Amino acid sequence: MRIGLITADPGHPVLAATAALLADRHEVTIVDPAGPAGPALADVYLLKAHTRRSLSLAQELEWCGAPVINSAAATELCQDRVRMAELARAADLPFAATRDAGRLAELADPAYPFVVKSRHSRRHDLVARVDGPARLRELVARWPDEPVVTQPFVPGTGWDQKLWVIDRQVFAARRRSELADSEGESGQGQDWEPPADRAALALRVGEVFGLDVYGVDLLDGPAEPVIVDVNAFPGIRGRPGAPEALAALALRVAAERGRGRAGAGPISGQRRGR
Predict the structure, then answer these.
(1) Among 178, 165, 177, CA closest to 230
(2) CA–centroid distance for 231 within its chain
(3) Helix %, strand %, coil % for the chain, to 5?
(4) For a disulfide at 26, which of 1, 66, 77, 93, Cβ 3.0-4.6 Å?
(5) CB of 164 within 8 A of CB of 214?
């Protein structure tokens, strides 16, 4: 099998471990999302990049018949927090109330405290708790033209519940929230076995969003868990078994939907989307 990794960071721990598992018996190719896909189609591609160029490349590969995990459409949807919330709420998922607030500088008369996030999810985007006008002015000075969404602040327990799913296998951890008032260092993590209802909720998210590899961020709300974010192909660092699950997923999809080496043809000259 030929497996393509669409990534600008092939040394990422999960990808590197997955590639090492596959390399003994299969051909693993690193595909730079800013460059061409290569002379021939792989049997399957893992899309661990979320830039516009990488999404365009993934879409092109799909047009040529190659399976991509996750699909370009599902990945792109998870980049827009407004669309994400609309889909989740339409499917009766307990997603945090999310309001499109336009540009941050235009945000007026908010109910404090609240959480503000970049509308478009990306590395180093804006995610902050806002307790009052002074904090809001500080953020506006740094991010005046940033399109944002707002969500109510959920105090919870001071721990973020992180659930990651690979081909319906659920991995989990808890991390000290950077947004809550809690003792302990923010970002500090601990192993955590999610209750059955949390694991079932994470699997339901994948069904609704059409994702095979994804993360779900949960908080404990007053009456039920609250989903505050969904991430396509997150890092899943430090979770034993994650590379093995990812390698098995790639091989399964390649076997079920892949074109096979003999059928993989050139893709040069194909029209690039966007």
Answers:
(1) 165
(2) 2
(3) 30, 25, 45
(4) 1
(5) yes
Residue 188 reports pLDDT greater than 80? no
CA-to-CA dists, residue 132 to 128, 136, 139, 191, angstroms: 12, 6, 11, 34
Least confident of 5-14, 69-78, 175-184: 175-184
The alpha carbon torsion through 131, 134, 138, 140 (nearest 10 deg) reads 80
pTM: 0.89
What is the C-alpha separation between 55 and 29, in angstroms, rounded?
18
**Structure token pair of residue 12:** 């990422």
Mean pLDDT score, 206-221? 96
Q: What pLDDT band is residue 263 in, cutting at 50, 70 and 90?
A: very low
In 3-state terms, what secondary structure has residue 145? coil
CA separation for the pair 209, 167 (Å, rounded) = 13
The angle subtended at Cα 261 by Cα 242 and Cα 213, nearest 5°, is 25
Q: Kindly write down the DSSP assignment for every residue of 117-130, as one continuous string.
A: EESB--TT--EEEE
- Other beta carbons within 10 angstroms of residue 53's beta carbon come to 15
Helix axes 81-90, 196-209, angle to 10 degrees: 110
Place of tokens 């709300």: 221
| Residue-averaged pLDDT of the chain | 89
